[in-house]
């Protein structure tokens, strides 16, 4: 590292922070990554100047160069090439436009794949892939048709972008790697905002041109690399569009394909890693895409498919890809050596002559095996006109789904893997067409894991799809643990931060409460109690907990405010919570999910969840309140605006649903407003809308009709005001038809007392009575102040004091009246926030001070002054009576807004007033120490100038020495300015006049006109919304007078006395109001919510129709219809073309003589871009798949021993394949399945048949014989199941290897039952160990045990103990067994008449 600083001293000072960030990376590279280098230089006889490793003498160290006469040893790759710390890593810059920079590192060929994966994910910080796409094919430049080139690039990038895939290539600037690089480049140019596509190049270090530019012991940041295709010769340049490079070094130079083994290891390791999401346990899928290519590509495809990797071959790309595409779909028996030879001659051209005969045979064998694994092979053909057909990205994903679907080892879980892949890739289109088909039947429980995966992964389209295909939300969220897990897996958001703080707070409060047990609670987890506390904080304390905790734990999970509450209050709240717990079963799963989506500000998921809500209007209003509260508390820059937009969106939803309800049934719609919602904290829609400040909702005609109805009480809303006022004075008129009651025509009719109570208890009547009372109070107050204010209070003044006392009592009652259960702190805070209440408090305090002063002799007059000022405040309070007026009410709102504007304007104006006043006073007057005259000259006079009072003391022409005091001794005159010998002011007259002009310009003209403009803007802005604001604020006035006693002051004191006696003496609960909050019977509530859900569907339908009628939507629909018609025309044209070909074939056949009947009608390969091969039964398959290292590839047509194979030369060497018998003895043992490619006994124990016994031990799970189970052996290493079995000399006894699994006692007991068992099947088995002269023959034996037998008891004891690898498994098609054993298990099921 010191060497790096010394050689880069100039750059080090400039980039020191970057170097500090790179130090951990450099240290990790040095510790984990190495290169290969030759330690012994020995000349290559073919190239005198080079070592046998391929490097020149100068590339070796001094220790590696031996004397010329050194003859001690011969160069050996395994011995003389050793590891050394890598010297090539860092960033590589390719220059040119855009300055493309990539990561690179030189790695040893034997580097562990786990280390490389750590390098990619942790050091290079790549997100783990959801899919690995391995692209292989022609390494040299080849021609790719324009339409195929476009389709390949577009499809590859689309699948990488939508699934979050890694693309793995050879990394050089040639062949298929260059096409991948061009695709990445086109994506980067068109998507500058989104993240880059990860394209990893795995190339051989020894063939990279200009690789010396990449070498530096401490890394290059960056290394400047130049692509020189003209001078590269036999080497290759790196592609400048790949994002990462792994340069594989085996210590040699100029040798290609060194990276193949390491690349395969890396792909294998990645395929064994779990997907990166929090829920999935599935491994990362891998797919291989092949273009063009030669023998190396064929070998790569063959090995990939043997390992279970799906492969996509692009037809039309050339060479081996076209050969496989041409024979795809044919039976394996028709894929002969002659056919392959013919196809290779057409596809390879002159290159075909380089291949030997044995290579053609090997190619044929591999192609036959590839075609035989049709479930792993997909042939893609691009449409030339770019219309119709299947895109490459769909073909790739369908290939993976097809491979998963036909994977027999997964049994019935293949559908789960397919669905998990589709969700991970977020390809709902594939799920609809390939998974959720008409033939598939889904249970709700089977989709729960998928719903969790879709919700946590934020896949709204999949959430909708799962709900459409049978998932029951109530079953999904039936267990609280599921909902709790969803909250634990919330994405990073504001709510999660708040929840974490609340969990820590709850943990600390527990620690204080439990003392010595504090350390146990350090790892507190998120629970629904914490969620409920935080949601209640967001909704408001007027709500109750939506997830109430038990009485046992509630006091440990309180918020900050609750911790300070009294013990008695906690006990009361816990009793309430216990009652709520009994109603917890009524929780709505749709509301639970909707809340989970809202708190993370997720619009797409919340729309789906809201559609599932059982109480949609309350949910929408609650969402508005929660989002606005979070936006208020959030400190993020952009997130609050998004929250407010979503809050507005759900307010509009609530408005739409209520309008539909109100238009359908007014009475039921108004019930929805005041109905207590059990799902949202025992509150109402109306209250939620008011707390959320949803003015547009409250301003709805239906809501206002309800408020008007409450305002009028029992009186009809149709009564004129003057009639109500007359009845207030002459109440007997209510017994006539002078006023109308709401229930006047209801049976039985209202009685006399009910009419009287209905009149004076109406909020409207209370309001008018209080207005009259308040006017009388002001009149009495004015009389006292102006006429009857004596040193000793008169009777009139005492009446005034008593009247005020009744007003004070009413204010106290309002302060403590808490029907919503806010608590005193919250109620007091809300009381103070109301402007009219502030005026009430100020007026009462001033009155009390004035009264205290007037009762003393010294402060008598001061007390009167305070009372006079207090009278002004009481008069201002009179404006509150106009808030109920539809005309004057909005104007008061405008006045309040303008007062706020004027306050800020006065601050701005005061700057100019003080600036001019102080400057003027300092220039005119010298050292005036009278504070009153200083304030008058510096502030008061400049302020009067604004209103036209022009000053005379700044102009000498109007100066009068008699109007001022020379030394400032006269308190009634200002001090004279500094005078000269002529008794005239000496101040610069020109300066004071200029200052006055500038002051008038800014203050009178600029600022006053600014104030007028502000008032005008405020008026226009507020006037448009004054109606909704007035309607919103009208609620508080109505609610105040609804709860107010009927008698006006001062008679209201009797009502206060009654309430005091009822509460404090009789201990009776206050009478709760029912007009604003109603608890409906359960049956009525269910019917109401069902009706509301119907109205919600109507609202959503009308919203969709409105959206579809927009101009943009019409254009889009027209475009889609044109596209559909175009596709239909193209398909019709294809059918016509096919018909013409068929007719031409018939004509040619009739005309030709000697037409062979074996010819078949030609198929139109363009009619289907994804073709499916035909299958046929043949000889053994596994036995000739080159499982042995020295196996010879045997084509399908040469498997039969009756066929002649002149070039066939089965190996007999190694591992005593032939045993003791010579070639003549081997002829006595011939595999009945045919040739395998290896002679002798191979890995088997003897020549000829090798007997094997598979034991199927079965039982009935219960006495009803409903479920058949079998005994399976669990392989702990492979985590797979198998039937107990093994090799035997005779099928009359169990295999000896089972003794170690079953134990001696159980082994002997089962061995004794072999003779009683039922033979299910026996015969030849297609085993990968089979050779030409040795093969496996298996006998499957079924032993069925009785539930009461001793053997059954012994087996159950072994299974229950857990020490054994034995397990009872249900006989089902979903069980994971090898194909042969699955077939045996199916036969056992049929034997017992059970469906498999």
UniProtKB/TrEMBL annotation:
Cellular localisation: Membrane
Domain TRPM-like: 434-699
Key words, A-Z: Coiled coil, Ion channel, Ion transport, Membrane, Transmembrane, Transmembrane helix, Transport
Stretch list, region Disordered: 1154-1242
Major place of residence: membrane
InterPro entries noted in UniProt: Ion_trans_dom (IPR005821), TRPM (IPR050927), TRPM-like (IPR057366), TRPM_SLOG (IPR041491)
Domain TRPM SLOG: 103-329
Residue stretches in coiled coil: 1115-1142
Gene Ontology cellular component list: plasma membrane
Ion transport domain residues: 775-1026
Membrane topology designation: Multi-pass membrane protein
Compositional bias annotation for Basic and acidic residues: 1172-1184
Keyword Coiled coil: yes
Ranges that cross the membrane: 721-740, 767-786, 798-816, 836-853, 859-882, 902-919, 990-1015
Superkingdom classification of source: Eukaryota
Polar residues composition bias: residue spans: 1154-1171, 1200-1210
Protein name as it appears in the record: Transient receptor potential cation channel, subfamily M, member 2
Organism: Xiphophorus maculatus
């Amino acid at each position: 590292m010191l060497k790096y600083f010394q050689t880069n001293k100039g750059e080090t000072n400039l980039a020191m922070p970057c170097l500090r960030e790179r130090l951990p990376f450099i240290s990790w590279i040095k510790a984990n990554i190495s290169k290969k280098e030759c330690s012994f230089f020995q000349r290559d006889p073919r190239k005198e100047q080079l070592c046998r490793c391929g490097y020149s003498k100068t590339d070796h160290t001094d220790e590696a160069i031996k004397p010329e006469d050194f003859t001690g040893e011969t160069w050996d790759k395994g011995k003389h090439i050793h590891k050394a710390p890598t010297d090539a890593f860092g960033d590589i810059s390719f220059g040119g436009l855009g300055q493309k920079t990539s990561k690179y590192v030189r790695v040893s060929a034997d580097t562990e794949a786990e280390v490389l994966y750590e390098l990619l994910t942790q050091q290079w910080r790549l997100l783990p892939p959801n899919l690995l796409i391995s692209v292989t094919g022609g390494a040299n430049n080849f021609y790719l048709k324009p339409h195929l080139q476009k389709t390949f690039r577009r499809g590859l990038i689309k699948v990488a972008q939508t699934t979050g895939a890694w693309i793995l290539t050879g990394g050089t600037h040639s062949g298929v790697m260059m096409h991948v690089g061009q695709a990445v480049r086109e994506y980067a140019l068109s998507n500058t905002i989104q993240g880059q596509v990860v394209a990893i190049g795995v190339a051989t270090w020894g063939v990279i041109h200009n690789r010396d530019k990449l070498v530096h012991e401490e890394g290059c940041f960056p290394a400047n690399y130049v692509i020189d295709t003209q001078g590269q010769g036999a080497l290759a340049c790196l592609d400048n569009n790949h994002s990462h490079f792994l340069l594989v070094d085996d210590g040699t130079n100029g040798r290609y394909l060194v990276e193949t083994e390491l690349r395969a290891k890396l792909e294998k390791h990645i395929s064994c890693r779990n997907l990166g999401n929090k829920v999935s346990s599935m491994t990362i899928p891998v797919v291989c895409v092949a273009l063009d290519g030669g023998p190396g590509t064929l070998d790569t495809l063959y090995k990939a498919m043997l390992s279970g990797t799906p492969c996509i071959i692009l037809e039309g790309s050339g060479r081996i890809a076209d050969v496989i595409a041409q024979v795809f779909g044919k039976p394996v028996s028709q894929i002969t050596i002659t056919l392959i030879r013919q196809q290779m001659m057409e596809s390879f051209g002159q290159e075909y002559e380089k291949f030997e005969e044995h290579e053609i045979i090997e190619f044929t064998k591999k192609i036959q095996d590839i075609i035989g694994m049709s479930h792993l092979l997909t042939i893609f053909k691009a449409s030339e006109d770019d219309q119709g057909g299947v895109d490459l990205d769909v073909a790739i994903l369908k290939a993976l789904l097809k491979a998963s679907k036909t994977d027999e080892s997964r049994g019935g879980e293949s559908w789960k893997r397919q669905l998990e892949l589709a969700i991970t890739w977020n390809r709902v289109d594939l799920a609809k067409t390939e998974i959720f088909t008409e033939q598939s039947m889904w249970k709700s429980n089977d989709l729960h894991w998928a719903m969790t995966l879709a919700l946590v992964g934020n896949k709204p389209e999949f959430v909708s799809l799962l709900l459409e295909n049978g998932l029951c939300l109530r079953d999904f969220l039936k267990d609280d643990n599921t909902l709790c897990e969803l909250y634990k897996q919330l994405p990073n958001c504001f709510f999660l931060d708040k929840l974490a703080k609340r969990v820590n707070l709850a943990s600390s409060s527990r620690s204080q409460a439990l003392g010595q047990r504090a350390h146990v609670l350090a790892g507190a987890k998120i629970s629904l109690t914490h969620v409920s506390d935080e949601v209640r904080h967001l909704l408001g304390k007027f709500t109750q907990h939506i997830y109430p905790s038990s009485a046992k734990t509630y006091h440990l999970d309180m918020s900050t405010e609750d911790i300070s509450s009294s013990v008695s209050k906690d006990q009361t709240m816990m009793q309430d919570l216990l009652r709520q717990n009994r109603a917890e079963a009524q929780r709505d799963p749709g509301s639970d999910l909707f809340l989970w989506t809202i708190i993370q500000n997720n619009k797409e998921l919340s729309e789906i969840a809201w559609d599932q809500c059982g109480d949609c209007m309350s949910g929408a209003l609650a969402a508005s309140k929660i989002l606005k509260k979070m936006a208020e508390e959030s400190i993020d820059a952009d997130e609050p605006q998004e929250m407010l937009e979503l809050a507005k969106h759900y307010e509009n939803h609530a408005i739409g649903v209520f309008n539909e309800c109100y238009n359908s049934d007014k009475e039921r719609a108004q019930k929805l407003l005041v109905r207590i919602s059990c799902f949202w904290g025992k509150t109402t829609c109306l209250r939620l809308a008011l707390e959320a400040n949803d003015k547009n909702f409250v301003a709805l005609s239906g809501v206002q009709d309800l408020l008007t109805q409450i305002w009028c009480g029992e009186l009809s809303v149709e009564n004129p005001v003057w009639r109500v006022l007359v009845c207030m004075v002459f109440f007997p008129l209510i017994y006539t038809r002078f006023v109308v009651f709401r229930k006047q025509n209801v049976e039985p009719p209202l009685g006399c007392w009910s009419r009287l109570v209905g009149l004076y208890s109406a909020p409207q009547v209370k309001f008018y009575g209080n207005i009259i009372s308040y006017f009388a109070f002001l009149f009495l107050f004015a009389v006292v102040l102006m006429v009857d204010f004596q040193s000793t209070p008169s009777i009139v003044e005492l009446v005034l004091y008593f009247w005020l006392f009744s007003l004070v009592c009413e204010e106290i009652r309002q302060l403590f009246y808490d029907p919503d259960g806010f608590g005193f702190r919250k109620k007091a805070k809300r009381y103070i926030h109301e402007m009219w209440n502030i005026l009430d408090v100020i007026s009462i305090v001033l009155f009390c001070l004035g009264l205290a002063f007037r009762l003393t002799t010294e402060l008598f007059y001061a007390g009167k002054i305070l009372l006079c000022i207090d009278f002004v405040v009481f008069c201002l309070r009179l404006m509150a009576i106009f808030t109920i007026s539809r005309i004057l009410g909005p104007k008061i709102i405008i006045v309040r807004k303008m007062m706020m504007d004027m306050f800020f304007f006065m601050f701005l104006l005061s700057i100019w007033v003080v600036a001019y006043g102080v400057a003027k006073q300092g220039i005119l007057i010298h050292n005036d120490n009278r504070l009153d005259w200083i304030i008058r000259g510096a502030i008061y006079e400049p302020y009067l100038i604004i209103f036209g009072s022009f000053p005379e003391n700044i102009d000498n022409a109007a100066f009068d020495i008699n109007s001022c005091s020379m030394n400032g001794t006269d308190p009634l005159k200002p001090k004279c300015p500094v005078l000269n010998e002529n008794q005239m002011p000496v101040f610069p007259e020109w300066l004071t006049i200029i200052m006055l002009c500038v002051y008038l310009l800014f203050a009178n003209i600029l600022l006053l006109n600014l104030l007028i403009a502000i008032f005008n803007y405020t008026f226009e802005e507020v006037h448009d919304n004054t109606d909704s604001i007035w309607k919103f604020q009208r609620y508080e006035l109505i609610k105040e007078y609804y709860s107010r006693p009927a008698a006006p002051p001062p008679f209201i004191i009797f009502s206060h006395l009654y309430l005091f006696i009822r509460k404090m003496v009789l201990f009776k609960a206050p009478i709760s109001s029912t007009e604003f909050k109603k608890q409906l019977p359960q049956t009525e509530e269910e019917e109401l919510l069902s009706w509301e859900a119907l109205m919600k569907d109507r609202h959503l339908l009308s919203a969709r129709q409105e959206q579809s009628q927009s101009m943009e939507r019409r254009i889009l629909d027209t475009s889609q219809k044109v596209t559909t018609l175009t596709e239909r025309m193209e398909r019709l044209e294809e059918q016509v073309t096919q018909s013409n070909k068929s007719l031409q074939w018939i004509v040619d056949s009739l005309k030709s003589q000697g037409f062979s009947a074996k010819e078949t009608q030609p198929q139109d390969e363009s009619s289907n871009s994804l073709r499916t091969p035909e299958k046929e039964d043949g000889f053994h398959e596994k036995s000739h798949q080159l499982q042995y290292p020295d196996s010879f590839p045997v084509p399908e047509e040469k498997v039969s021993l009756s066929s002649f194979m002149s070039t066939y030369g089965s190996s007999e060497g190694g591992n005593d394949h032939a045993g003791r018998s010579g070639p003549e003895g081997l002829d006595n043992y011939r595999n009945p399945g045919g040739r395998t490619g290896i002679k002798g006994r191979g890995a088997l124990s003897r020549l000829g048949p090798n007997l094997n016994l598979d034991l199927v031990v079965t039982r009935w799970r219960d006495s009803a014989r409903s479920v058949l189970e079998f005994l399976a052996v669990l392989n702990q290493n492979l985590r797979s199941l198998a039937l107990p079995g093994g090799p035997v000399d005779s099928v009359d006894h169990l295999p000896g290897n089972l003794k170690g699994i079953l134990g001696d006692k159980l082994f002997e007991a089962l061995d004794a039952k072999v003779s009683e068992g039922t033979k299910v099947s026996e015969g030849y088995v297609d085993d990968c160990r089979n050779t030409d002269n040795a093969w496996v023959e298996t006998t499957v034996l079924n032993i069925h045990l009785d539930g009461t037998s001793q053997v059954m008891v012994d087996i159950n004891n072994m299974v229950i103990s857990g020490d054994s690898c034995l397990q009872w498994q249900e006989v089902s098609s979903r069980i994971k067994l090898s194909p042969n054993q699955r077939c045996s298990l199916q036969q056992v099921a049929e034997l017992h008449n059970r469906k498999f």
